[in-house]
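Usage example:
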Amino acid sequence: MMAKWSEIEKKQFSEVLVEWYEREKRELPWRENTEAYRVWVSEIMLQQTQVDTVIPYFERFMSLFPTMKDFAYAPEEQILKAWEGLGYYSRVRNLQTAIREVTEAYDGVVPQSKEAILSLKGVGPYTAGAILSIAYNQPEAAVDGNVYRVYSRLMRIDDDISKAKTRKVFEQAVNETISQDKPGAFNQALMDLGATICTPKNPKCDMCPVQKYCRAYAENDIEKYPFKSKKLKTKQKYLVTAIIQSNDGRFLVQQRPSEGLLANLWMFPSIEEEKPVEDLVESYQAGVSMPLYLNNQSLGKVKHVFSHLKWDVEIITGVMDEADLIEGYRLVTLEEMKVLPFPVPYQKVWQLYLKTRSEL
DNA sequence: AAGCCGGGGGC
DNA sequence: GCCCCAGGCTT
Ligand code: SF4
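Running the assembly step on the lines above writes:
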């Protein structure tokens, strides 16, 4: 049984980890420089999102909005389009709210105090710590999923990471070991270690630069860490959507409500039920209060899995008279549709529509 | 404290 | 299928 971490050991661990990072760090677009705006955008994108997914979005975002000024007052349609497919769309709306706040209340400079930065919309304890350490060289912990995993193993911490108060335990553990002169490198080293070596399944302990400090490795019980009690369950929903064209060939679309799932994104008008829909045309017509001429045959089905629910989407087609268009809907050309942000399940719907149409 | 909020990748 | 991912907000 190895002893509790000594002060000397903490110091050594920190130095070894930072040296490893400086030797082996991943070259990533947001690591080209430490401008606070770039760090901020990357940290928001990386919330619950893997590095490889983020890279192209980050590149595109930065070329669209090179400075906070470019982003602060861009139209919502444009910022959602830049986020299209990335998920958790409130992130980009909160980011714009926060960057407006920085523009108006902080003279365009991302604040350096923990209290101020934490008050910004969408910036929680993790993101605050990441920005302060990486952009401003402050020794602040940034506790995320990687830190839970790496530290629970290093120190055999068995607190339940599902519980809110557990974050404090890990913040203290990091604070006791964080590099005082290179906190940004230290925190990013933990990310790289968690992503490439100390992975959820089959950690590569043989290649681990801090293996000699690791208590779980020494005790051979890595699989016990981290401990997480709750698992989430998903609900099933049944949708019917329709590709509906007006006499001039435009397509019927609708903006989603400003709150809730996929807020403010666009879709093909849809109905949602708890159970499989029996008569697609009858139910759909009952749910959309415009006269429609619907084809009584399903184009096919699209399945989509969210974190907390599953969609089963039946697709039908139809036509309408443009004179019958009511408030809340739009008839758009293909060019107009391209500019609107659509969630992935509706992109799947559109792809299926194009495929079946090309087969005619 | 628990639920909500996307989408993709690994196994 | 399941779990995880550079989490935060709302209730
Ligand atoms: S020795 Fe293994 S379990 Fe411990 S920190 Fe390194 S990779 Fe993770």
